[in-house]
Amino acid sequence: MKITIVGGGNLGTLMAASFASKGNEVILQTSNPEKFCKVLEVYTNDEELVCKGEIVKATNDWKESILNADLIWIVVPPQLFEKTAQAMEPYVNDRQIVGMAPGAGAAEFAFESIINKGVKFFGLARVPSIVRLKEYGKSAYMLGPAPELVIGSIPAKESKNISEYIQPLFDMVCRPAANYLAVAFTPSNPVLHTSRIYAMFKDYVPGNNYPENELFYEAWTIDGAEILLNCSDELQQICKAIPMDMREVESMQSRHNIRTPEELAKRICSLDRLKGLYSPVIKNEKGYVPDFNSRYFVSDFPLGIKIMIEVARLFEVPTPTMDTIWSWYKKIQPEQAKNGFKLNLTQEEFIRFYMGV
User: Between the CA of residue 130 and those of 11, 14, 136, 147, 311, what are the distances in Å?
Assistant: First the structure.
């Protein structure tokens, strides 16, 4: 299989190495091709080699990477989706399959022009693994492989075929969801990160400094867990109001087998695959301040929770907790908030877009 991976960060490095190790022809599209080795490696956190694979090449030439690919994976952050789609669009064709890892971040709208060219478009509910770079351009750590991959597509009827097509690339089950929205609304970063960030920084004013850089997950608070549960409950209400099969969207209670904020906080703090990850802050001479250029701020608010709020408005579902988080974000990041996702579809157009009919 001829595979192109767009994005040379931690996940792109892991996927390129893994797919190449299975005998696929892999091209890595990156802004820094000169920094990449041809042989890429994946390790466990204990420095054991998991796999290594030789890619065809790393390149920044879009025509070279896209034109003859069978399968194209997009693993850049959501704030780069529109720019990526514009660069790809002249070279894609209706024989290709384009996949998002993961499928959140309004990807389906950013890549709408590509979908309209007849490609089969899909997204993963969650990434195949938690990944950290070991050495840029050479190796990555695979910290927590997912138990399975759930795939949603546009048009919706292609999910099963795409799941079977990509299954040989992964050492885990790939199974279809009923539609793309069911994976885009997975309660991960758009509610997980925004709930934690809001709980941490809701009282922040310019000039404030924090004494330490907290561990993002291991220091999860009961307050943050309560906010997250409220967001999860609101998301469930949105899903119930949409006349599509949204059963794949788990509640936090179901996913983590918990009932209370105390139980959820304890559960998140104990997740091994998320240990050692620090908060999005910048150190200065007086302490730490929020890093507003972090993807947590740049992506997960305007291209994450804002999408859920927009869909809630379309289907007349109240979301008081999500609204509170978004109002806070607008106050501290007014310019970024102006570029937040806006939905300009009727209910009927919305359903047709996802179902591909």
Answer: 8, 10, 16, 12, 28
Burial class (CB in 10 A: 0-12, 13-18, 19+), 116: exposed
Three-class SS of residue 322? helix
Domain boundary among 117, 147, 179: 179
pLDDT per position as a tens digit, 4-37:
999 999 999 999 999 999 999 999 999 999 999 9
In the chain, the N- to C-terminal Cα span, in Å, equals: 29
| pTM: predicted TM-score of the whole model, two decimal places | 0.93
Task: Answer yes or no: are the C-beta atoms of 115 and 121 closer than 8 Å.
Answer: yes
Q: Are residues 10 and 49 in the same domain?
A: yes
Instruction: Round the CA-based radius of gyration of the chain to a whole number and report it.
Output: 20
Report helix, strand or coil for 313.
helix
184 is a domain residue: no
Sign of CA dihedral 251, 257, 263, 269: negative
Q: 43 and 159: one domain?
A: yes
Provide the residue range defining the domain that includes 84.
2-179
Rounded CA gap, 123 and 107, in Å?
9
